[in-house]
Design brief:
GNAT_dom, EC 2.3.1.210, transferase, alpha+beta, about 230 residues, acyltransferase, ten-stranded mixed β-sheet
Length: about 230
């Protein structure tokens, strides 16, 4: 089989979702794709052969993705940044649900309401320490949550899960402060690298990371094929 099930996404979105095993791409057929509600493929932007094969089988470009790495040196605690507590979950769920509406989980591939719930649950899990290990938040003078970053330690490096700033507080340097706090969290764990994945279309995030000295390590594309797509 050239397609592997994505169990969590399949359960959450109530549809059969799979991902192409690129090592088995030569075995992928339209008939196998037809057994799934949605098939995803993540391909290096330089792998033109695989991109051509997938396009020929009815896959459509959904989003570009960039991988970046920030080398961690000296860091410092950031004022106004706190560890999220269960009391912050309601506000965080609301904020996350409305920040990522143009991600690769957008319509028409996924139901908009379920996509909102997806990101709300993600940040909820981060506060609880499941999937991501911790969530850091920015608070204003009224103790209102204005931004957040979720983090996890994986394979000897720190990784950012979600980073978001309320639309009402953009341009105030909160994203930069959250990124510095994320680096400080990583240093406290004895880690020397902070890994970040972001959409190529998210230029503001790309600029933020590059200003912080991030090194662009790779780019890739996500392609999807729905059950009712035709070649």
């Amino acid at each position: 089989m050239a397609i592997n099930v994505l169990a969590w996404e399949s359960t959450f979105f109530s549809q059969r979702v799979g991902k192409v095993d690129l090592a088995q791409l030569d075995r992928l057929s339209v008939e196998e794709c037809a057994d799934w509600d949605l098939v995803q493929a993540k391909v290096s932007s330089t792998d033109y052969q695989s991109l051509d094969k997938l396009t020929a089988q009815g896959f459509a470009l959904v989003e570009g993705e960039a991988e970046l790495v920030v080398a961690i040196a000296d860091t410092s605690r950031q004022s106004g940044i706190r560890i999220a507590r269960p009391t912050h979950i309601e506000a965080l769920r609301h904020l996350a649900a409305n920040l990522f509406t143009e991600s690769r989980f957008r319509t028409p591939w996924f139901d908009h309401h379920l996509t909102q719930q997806f990101y709300a649950q993600w940040i909820d899990n981060a506060v609880q320490g499941t999937f991501d290990d911790q969530c850091l938040i920015s608070l204003d003078e009224q103790a209102t949550v204005t931004g957040f970053v979720s983090l996890r330690q994986s394979e000897g490096v720190a990784r950012i899960g979600l980073l978001g700033v309320a639309s009402t507080h953009r341009g105030a340097g909160i994203g930069h402060q959250l990124l510095l706090a994320a680096a400080d969290w990583a240093r406290s764990k004895g880690l020397t690298e902070l890994h970040i994945t972001t959409q190529l279309s998210n230029l503001s995030a790309m600029r933020l990371y590059l200003r912080q000295g991030a090194r662009l390590t790779s780019t890739s594309y996500w392609l999807y094929r729905k059950r009712d797509d035709s070649v």
